[in-house]
Amino acid sequence: MQIIITGGAGFLGQKLAKALLKNPIDFDELLLVDVIMPGVPLQDDRIVCKQVDLSEPGVPETLIRPDTGLIFHLAAILSSHAEKDFDLGWKINLDITKQLLEACRKRKPGIRFVFASSLAVYGGALPEMVNDMTALTPRSSYGIQKAMGELLVNDYTRKKFVDGRVLRLPTISVRPGKPNLAASSFVSSIIREPLHGEQTICPVDPGLGLWLSSPDTTISNFIHAAKVSEEQLGNWRSINLPGLGVTVRQMLDALEKVAGKSTLDLIQFKPDPAINNIVGTWPHKIDNEPALKLGFRIDQHFEDIITQFIDSES
Amino acid sequence: MQIIITGGAGFLGQKLAKALLKNPIDFDELLLVDVIMPGVPLQDDRIVCKQVDLSEPGVPETLIRPDTGLIFHLAAILSSHAEKDFDLGWKINLDITKQLLEACRKRKPGIRFVFASSLAVYGGALPEMVNDMTALTPRSSYGIQKAMGELLVNDYTRKKFVDGRVLRLPTISVRPGKPNLAASSFVSSIIREPLHGEQTICPVDPGLGLWLSSPDTTISNFIHAAKVSEEQLGNWRSINLPGLGVTVRQMLDALEKVAGKSTLDLIQFKPDPAINNIVGTWPHKIDNEPALKLGFRIDQHFEDIITQFIDSES
After folding, report:
1. Which of B142, B156, B296, B302 is an active site residue?
2. Which DSSP string do the residues of A88-153 spell out, in sequence order?
């Protein structure tokens, strides 16, 4: 079997590839594709990396082989970027998803198709506790595009063109590396930069609630999503991955506990309306029960998430 | 001001045009467009009819003039048709909607854009009473495409590319003419054909609940949607138009009352799984309050709806 990861050069794509190479899922080829050449995550004969532009007509079809069994579709334009470059957001977040689903339908119906969606599909006037039956009224183009992608994957699944699994990701923290073009980039920066002894800006109020998942838990949930049976999933395939609810203040308290009070001095509070307009509309309490029943994992404490990040860098 | 109606050859398009010509909305041109040449609904110098294929690249842009102020986007592939012809459904129900919104954005941002959606955006395991915050989990490609169109119109509105108003139409009964390719076509046929002394088939159980709006009420609500202020509508522009909840049995009881017992003998019950798979997933109780507060109209009794149909034919 061949497995494909789109967005294979990204943090999640690379980390997922590493996990798959160590995991008991049996496969012959793991194809990483991205608009920039993906790095080789681990030396392994099964890894193939390709630089391709999935938005070019016909390209998605060239990737799918008779033995393609699983696609992780992670390629995306992130929230702040999609808000600034409206056309690019539509092209990558929606059009490519459609083209990839069409390629599956034409070349090999029934491929297991794991789609990375986001809690950003929620927005506006939300109930205290969001659940699977809460309407999607996103207040960002990224959220709209992901919500539309979810509907696409669900319809292609109902028609048996793919076997879709839609994962609504909590905000991921702590991401390694540099800030990215997600409106939620600060959710990693306010921990990562102080741990590196660097100054950083927190663009939101310390009282803002967030809904988080650690990188390890997220990757483990991607692999679980590929394994869980169709019978367990039922007809509607959009899943709120379990998250941990914390305020920015609680994150910083945990940082102080783990790394000392001096780390907090590196954080400057400077409200950014563009970021608040997006992140401020996201939910910070989602019903975890349906996903936990399906066997998805959850983080227990934000301190553990910080420790996970420190360990990953050592 | 120019007003455009897409799907202008259809029953709703023609009826809306007639109503606009008699209505106090002030305009210079009423352009009806459709893939077949729209008929002239009333002799009036302001009417222009054009046969155009909106799915041809560039065509939507040619329609919009500097004085275009209002578009009613009614063009659609109906539910059973979109289920059978998957590609055509996407092309007309989604792609054209996007192209039309893009044309507004490029040619004249801010045009009032009234989009005909449908209660078919709901489906699956619904609560007893559906409301504005109920998730859209449609079980038909038509419902998926309309749900995606709604998201599009909302995002183009947020970006101020159009001033969108999304109307989720109840099932319309009684439509005149012939059965169409909507899965709900029988909802008109079981009244219309017996009134004409013709036999008809009811493909669902008499206990099935439906959510209805009469043609007159629907058209009146389209015009109201074009008039209601942005302030009243708020940020999220999807509106459940008020409906009347009835079972098929109640509809037939009303038919008997209005037209006599012999009309019921013309109806043969013959379940059709393809129709039940679509119509059986639609809601039959939706919270009317938000739309009534905005000033939209509602039908009171199904008997009045039958009388409205009889009067319209006389």
Report:
1. B142
2. HHIIIIIIHHHHHHHHHHHH-TTEEEEEEEEGGG--SS--SSB-TTB----SSHHHHHHHHHHHHH
Of A148, A150, A151, A126, nearest to B132 by C-alpha is A126
Establish, for the pair of chains A and B, how many residue pairs have beta carbons separated by less than 8 Å.
53
pLDDT band, residue A53 (cuts 50/70/90): very high
Flag if B136 and A151 touch (Cβ within 8 Å): yes
- Residue pair B299/B173 in contact (Cβ under 8 Å)? The answer is no
ipTM for the assembly: 0.95
Q: Is A132 in contact with B135 (Cβ distance < 8 A)?
A: yes
* CA B301 distance to own-chain centroid: 20
User: What confidence score (pLDDT) does residue A2 get?
Assistant: 98
What residues contact residue A87 under an 8 Å CB cut-off, 6+ apart? none
When CB atoms are compared, the residue of A137, A148, A158 closest to B148 is A148
Interface residues of chain B, partner chain A, Cβ below 8 Å? 86, 124, 127, 132-139, 141, 144, 147-148, 151-152, 154-155, 158-159, 235-236, 238
Q: Residue B154 and residue A137: Cβ atoms within 8 Å?
A: yes
Q: What span, in angstroms and rounded, lies between the C-alpha atoms of B208 and B202?
A: 11
Map tokens 């041109």 to a residue: B29
Output the pLDDT for position A129.
95
C-beta contacts of B18-27 below 8 A and 24+ residues apart: B18/B42, B19/B219, B19/B220, B19/B222, B19/B223, B20/B223, B21/B46, B21/B47, B23/B223, B25/B70, B25/B223, B25/B226, B25/B227, B26/B1, B27/B1, B27/B2, B27/B3, B27/B69, B27/B70
- Catalytic center residues of A: 142
Angle at CA of residue A117, ends B95 and A250, nearest 5°: 140
How do residues B61-103 score in pLDDT, each as one tens digit? 999 999 999 999 999 999 889 999 999 999 999 999 999 999 9
Q: Tell me whether strands B244-247 and B209-213 are parallel, antiparallel or unpaired.
A: antiparallel
The verdict on a CB contact (< 8 Å) between A137 and B124 is no
Alpha carbon A103 to chain centroid distance?
22
Per the CB < 8 A criterion, the answer to whether A6 and A72 are in contact is: yes
Residue B142 is among the residues annotated as catalytic for this protein: yes
CB A3 within 8 A of CB A27: yes
Which among A144, A151, A159 has the least Cβ separation from residue B86? A159
Alpha-carbon dihedral angle through residues B146, B176, B165, B59, given to the nearest 10 degrees = 70
Sign of CA dihedral B291, B295, B299, B305: negative
